[in-house]
Amino acid sequence: MSQAVGLSEDEFLNLLDQVQDFRDRVIRPQVVDWERNRIFPAEVIASAHQLGLLGMEIDPELGGLGMSFGQKLRVLDVLSEVSMPYAFSLVNSHNVAARLARHGTEEQRGRFLSDLLTGNKLGSSALTEPNAGSDFSAISTQAISDAKGWRLNGEKAWITNAASSTVIVAYVQTDPGSRARGIASFLIDGTQPGFERVAPYDLIGSHAIGTGGFQLDNYLASHADLLAPAGEGFSAALATINEARTYVASMCCAMIEASLRSAVGYASERESFGKPIIKHQGLSWQLANVANQLEAARALTDKAVAAIEHGDSDSAVLPAAHAKKFATEIAESSLAACAQAMGANGLREEHLIGHRLTAARIANYVDGSTEIMTDRIAKSLSTTYRSVESTQ
Ligand SMILES: Cc1cc2nc3c(=O)[nH]c(=O)nc-3n(C[C@H](O)[C@H](O)[C@H](O)COP(=O)(O)OP(=O)(O)OC[C@H]3O[C@@H](n4cnc5c(N)ncnc54)[C@H](O)[C@@H]3O)c2cc1C
To answer: Rounded to two decimals, what is the model's pTM?
Structure first.
């Protein structure tokens, strides 16, 4: 659950103006280049520390901004209007800092927190492996204890920021065959022997996420590197999953809204058959449908934000699943409808709709795929919608 009380509205709006300025001055001019040249913009992510964005939700006493969860989402939305991959990378590094701030030991914080907050080092959370994605309990990276600590062996795949992150929260199995019961988590230092980076994947887009993997070959983790012991690693990984699902939903809403604004602007100027194309009912209804779905996705996301900010973690499970499933499912069709309304011009790179389309595709996998969201909702049906009438 989000614990920060948050900045005052004045302080927050002032910061939001600066984030918009940073986005338009620094990020926007580079997004197309990142895609064309498959660049992971580690320095630009690090430079967000000037606004404190690598410590958004972290307690000010530990060097963060102390934002509420809802405020963090509004910052991520502003960034996602231009580049959801950038925002996703940023928040993933932020999450490692937040994890250490809330649950790390004094020693762990001393070792890594200030470097994460200044962007000197980037963070990753590594659950997924080449043979285990949705079924997280099936991970096989193994931890065996020895006199010096733990020896870790295995491979992690599809990890955000893995192109250059060096502070990694890695989930491992301590007792093969025991599934969730044996999962522990360790802090891995990507500069140490036994850590080998796998080259970032060639993807269809969203290179700013820096998705890649790494191998652990007899990597020595000391006792001081243990974050969550066996039996607690699984629940620690899921502790903030509702927040992640909700910000992914929110980022999708931001991408749709930005594209809808472009499409409405374009369709109001461009003429066909003697009038602005938005005056053709067939076209305006397409965009009205996008607006309608966007409003519904926003309402679901707001409900999940309220559950996270005011409820316990259990009460956020379903709202977050509904929000993520709906927002990510409508994102691709909505973005495509906006591109369609702009005719061939919708294909131009500078309108960023292609960039957003790939990001929307990715949103359907990260932090629990669409099918896993549907399964979550399905499992709740009999308690949420139990019939009061006799079924005989
Ligand atoms: C850009 C990007 C960044 C990522 N960042 C991270 C990261 O930082 N850290 C990390 O640990 N992981 C990360 N991931 C991995 C992501 O969490 C996984 O892709 C996701 O968990 C799905 O796993 P998978 O891709 O192995 O698909 P699989 O689990 O192999 O599933 C394949 C398909 O089967 C479906 N499926 C699986 N099980 C069921 C079921 N029970 N019922 C119905 N359908 C099912 C899935 O929904 C999917 O459509 C990232 C992925 C991407 C693309």
So the answer is: 0.97
To test the pocket of ligand 1, the residue of 91, 366, 374, 379 to mutate (highest count of ligand atoms within 8 Å of its CB) is: 366
The first and second tokens of residue 271, run together, are 């003429």
CA distance 99 to 238: 12
* Domains of the chain in sequence order: 9-121 (1.10.540.10), 124-236 (2.40.110.10), 240-381 (1.20.140.10)
Strands 226-228 and 271-272: unpaired
Calculate how far, in angstroms, residue 273's C-alpha sits from the geometric centre of ligand 1.
Answer: 47
Ligand 1 nearest atom to the CA of residue 206, by list position: 1
DSSP 388: S
Cα 293 to Cα 127, 260, 267, 285, 319: the distances in Å are 32, 11, 19, 12, 17
Per-residue model confidence as pLDDT tens digits over 323-369: 999 999 999 999 999 999 999 999 999 999 999 999 999 999 999 99
pLDDT tens, 107-138?
999 999 999 999 999 999 999 999 999 999 99
**CA of residue 326 to ligand 1 center, whole Å:** 17
Length of the chain: 392
